[in-house]
Amino acid sequence: MESIELVKFVNTKVIPICIFLIMMGMGLSLIPKDFKRVVKYPKAVSIGLINQLILLPLIGFVLASVMPLEPEYAVGVMLLVLCPGGTTSNMFTHLAKGDVALSVSMTAIASIITVFTIPVILNLSLEHFMGKGTEFSLPIITTMISLMKLTILPISIGMLIKRFAPKLADSTQVHVSKFGILFLTLLIIFLTYIQKDIVVSALIAAGPVSILLNISTMAVGYYSSKWLGLNLAQRTSITIEVGLQNSTLSMFMALTLLANYKMSFTPAIYTLTMLFTAGVLVRIFNSKFNRADKPKVQLDIAK
Fold it and tell me: Which of 16, 174, 260, 263 could serve as a FRET partner for 253 with CA atoms 20 to 30 Å apart?
């Protein structure tokens, strides 16, 4: 009985509070002009958002449909691809020398838009993969309100702190990003412990689709932005933003809103994949930037 109460407490209290803090941390890095960037630099933001909000869900749906997945794991794929990027993507963009302002703008805008798209598309996905008349469904308005409380509200609070206490915001934001990764790690450990009997089978079942989804969406993000003429820093941002999803939010929806542990396994496994590939990309993009800087350095020396 105690373990059941602990699980309930984690699902309904700990996870929502931690997501709130993580999203508030995103707001700590935002200023109003980040949203104006959509108008000022529409090309890069538009390409990024098309990748994030349209191509990513389409690729996820195709993979979930054609690969031999149990319905719950397929829904897990959709939970993942419908979510925006998270603060982790902003941190890795910084490490990879990408356009951090673009990354933050994409994350913030996508976080607002997905509040309204997630409940509608997720219900359609549940019906498609679980069958008509499934017991799993989300009340659209109630879900939108829940997502607003966990995204728009904390982001707004973070922006207010940034506006009136910028030094506090700047010093806190770095720690919040690190907390996000730590919490995500602990959440995966928690899920592994609670569902230890099916962990191996879940890895075998959902591992391949997680790897394929991560690599394919990053490739689409990189090459689409390259072919459309974006610079290396912008391509770096879009590649990482598309590949690193807010898996904490997707696990929250699986565990709390849908009350299904099996649906949370795909996002959990994807998290391990995306953190590994993000680390590899940091090295690759850093190498690209270093090579791009060499001629300039040699020219300066010659002068």
Answer: 174
